[in-house]
## 1
Amino acid sequence: MPELPEVETVARGLRATLPGRRVVQVRLGKTDFIDDPAALEEKLPGSRVRGVRRLGKFLVLDLEAANGNGERLGLLIHLGMTGQIVTCAPEAPVAPHTHAFLALDDGREVRYTDIRRFGRMAILAEAKQAEVLGPLGLEPLEASEEEFAARMGTRRARVKALLLDQHVLRGMGNIYTDESLWRARVHPARLGTNLKGDEMRRLFRAVRWVLAEAIRLRGSSISDYVDSDGQPGEFQLRHRVYQREGKKCFRCGTAIRRVIVAGRSSYFCPRCQPAPRARAARTGASAKRKRQRQR
DNA sequence: CTTACGGCCTGGGTGC
DNA sequence: TGCACCCAGGCCGTAA
């Protein structure tokens, strides 16, 4: 499941080969994950790649249009759950569920494969790009501790939901959220406004450390993820809580638990990450009052 | 403002 | 061996 470190790894791989290249041909398979497939087929051929950017989980190929007047376009790609983007020789075997082929002027090919098609692709002019990318939150590895604390500490929502909310912080998914919370020793159901200063600082540092370490190890390959050369990452070997229900906490030996927080599977250590108390106490009290009224 | 939930889509696992 | 069922979770739209 591609999150920030996986998308960053793919972006770096593409950055090594794509800039300067011209797209010579486009072939599409299923197109229900593409905003406007006709626009892609019309505008991509002849365009030249100027650069490759990543914003959160979005990948942007900056393009100069074919029409000679220097029009700037961006090919937005989101890998969703199972998206893969690889460069290869055109004669390489085609993986099942490959739905886009971009032939390049150096004879190579860029392919987009996505089993579940939760991904997204769109070719957009600059104004339209801003519309999609503008609402995104802080880039986790560029934000300061003060910015992070200001965004997180003013929200009455569970930290799990806040970390996953792309409008607060861009790029975190379920894996890196749980790994960061474990490292920071913060329970996923704590509320943003209730985090103490030192907890907020630990969380900020944990997010940075986990993401940087995952990028260094080229991402986590749980089921489908591979980089732009088709290679898996290695951070899954360093996971401390994700998908480790019932196994021992690396810090204290307590059995890791799984609960649903903000609609997501959340793995945590019940000893290192103490549960918040206020919410349970309050709902308990109101239920008691209700029962008394009914008598 | 917030949270909850269903929908999208496929493959892999489980149980009968 | 098949088949029904559930689950994984990115993000969006809708409802409460």
Note: Confidence is low (pLDDT under 50) at residues 279-295 of chain A.
## 2
Amino acid sequence: MERHGEAELIHADAGPVIRGIEFERNADGTSKGLLTETQRRGLASLATLVTFPPRTIVYREDGELSSIFIAKEGVLKAFRELPSGKRRVAAFLFPGDMFGLAENGRYVNTVQTVTKVVLYQIPSEALAEMLRRDPELQFQFLCKITHELRQGQRHAILIARKDAAGRLAMFLSMLEQNEHAGSQGGWIQLPMSRTDLAEYLGLSLESVSRATSALSRRGIVIFQGGHAARVIDRARFEKLVNAL
Amino acid sequence: MERHGEAELIHADAGPVIRGIEFERNADGTSKGLLTETQRRGLASLATLVTFPPRTIVYREDGELSSIFIAKEGVLKAFRELPSGKRRVAAFLFPGDMFGLAENGRYVNTVQTVTKVVLYQIPSEALAEMLRRDPELQFQFLCKITHELRQGQRHAILIARKDAAGRLAMFLSMLEQNEHAGSQGGWIQLPMSRTDLAEYLGLSLESVSRATSALSRRGIVIFQGGHAARVIDRARFEKLVNAL
DNA sequence: CGTCCGTTTGAGGATCATCAATGTCCGTGG
DNA sequence: CCACGGACATTGATGATCCTCAAACGGACG
């Protein structure tokens, strides 16, 4: 595993927060879905805090599994290299997202930073050990993975759309609903490049560009500096998102 | 939840087998990844064996979570209904596949049988309870879900292809590699209809038909009765599968 | 101020969706 | 036994959309 970023060891930290969703609720309606303070601390005791600059590979596909990561700050992308050399971005990763679960001891995606990131790095054996000892914690992981499974399915639905503008609108909508993607004051942050976007949406770079132009020209969304977007015609935006 | 099939209670059964993949291996190279006899029996004690005829809804999206299922025999499809009324098939389910994991207490997909099926039905509370008590078993579930996550990503890659014939070839290749999909003697079983296929591949029904014709005409695959396929030019088939 | 990288815009060709018609299989009923 | 009907699948023609190739544009940085 290559690592160009310097790693710093910090244990005096609030600890990892995993974006889990509840599998069920208690009778009183409170959620069982979040980590307890104890669990957070337990994870923190296993974790090393590492920092990577933008555009850095965290690990490569087929690389040997060594650690699991949880994003603390910043944005990353998980992608696969296709035989032709093209890339398909499977997911963008935001704070609270977990990644690095492998298959047959090897990572299946390559993960690269988009912005500067701070990650919790947890040795996989230690994590596996802890999960075996703490079923409740493991249950949260199960919920988390299940949620990612849904995300993947939504991604497939998005890609199945034929209209580029609709795909883009759907993606913006997903970002907007992700409270960790960093949309502020109605502005949706787009830290990734047009190429990253194209590889996620399954479009060519030019089509993405034309799609942004189209949304802009039709007065549905405005873009600023290429890395922020704002919905200005909510009704038509939602109509476009649901037009499939 | 509707149920048109008659349910039979059988406990004198080998018990559920979940297609899991190993998360890691023991030092001696043996797999930790499969259910122990004890775990199988434990699951079996919770499970009811139910049978459904073809084209039957097992549960609907947004339906209240009640049970988790594991396919024992037969093929099913999991899909979502889109606002336009179109459907997108998220996955086909084969023996050993688990389904019914919900979000916020509601199913996210509708699951319908394709052929006659036999399912293990496990009440979700009982299962959750058992998972909390048996971390090793839960670990297998975690592995299983992780594997399904990969499948979903592969699905997204498939759908991102522009050429219909390539998508179909890729799907056939996936079926071929799935030892539970029932390919025998080089013949790949296709129990689902062309419409099901189209909804999985993100194509129109007609395009699927044209894709099968193209593969047939080019001498790469032959189809029989519309529900079985056989690769006759392996080299060109693989080339097509990897041409993306 | 010039270069480099990322983005935008334009023109032409390829592919799929749609609409419509025809063809095939299979169970039903005369 | 054969004719009919319906569900499913195939084939054809047309239009819309995206991809590719290509060129121009813009900002960041030395």
Note: Chain A touches chain B through 50 residues (CB under 8 Å).
